[in-house]
Amino acid sequence: METSVAAKGALSETHLMSLGCVGRAGTSLANQAARECDVLIGIGTRFGDIDTGGWTLHDIPGATRLIHIDIDSEELARVFPTAVAIVSDARLGLDALHAALQNGGSPAVRKWHSRLADLRRGWIEEARPIATSARLR
Asked: Tens of pLDDT along the chain (137 residues)?
């Protein structure tokens, strides 16, 4: 799960599904996941220039289908066409999605979670020399 800069703190950055911010100020991990995902669920996002890397990160409506949830119906499909547009409060929309996905997900979802874990491991290894550098102490 990636967040926009405006949504920092919506998900703990220590959560296993947290990939960090996406876009121009985002992590390589979140941006790679954005490029590879086949379904993107945007919740309360405006899909602005900074968070979409100049609208280049997502292949919508090509390889990626968008489910967009926003309390403001005018924001739905404003930037990207949606496969599903839902007018809802973010919390209520997330609660409904969570309830619908309680079965643990399909084999495709489990495969995607495995891919994200691989991306995370690679990103951690790539960042390890910088994170352990004596220059940071």
From this structure: 556 666 666 777 777 777 888 888 888 888 999 999 999 999 989 898 888 888 888 899 999 999 999 999 999 999 999 999 999 999 999 888 888 777 666 888 888 889 888 988 988 898 888 877 776 55
pTM (two decimals): 0.73
Extract long-range pairs of 24-29: CB within 8 Å, 24+ residues apart.
24/49, 24/50, 24/51, 24/53, 24/54, 25/50, 26/2, 26/51, 26/53, 27/123, 28/123, 28/126, 29/119, 29/120, 29/123
> CA dist 2 to 9, 21, 106, Å?
11, 6, 21
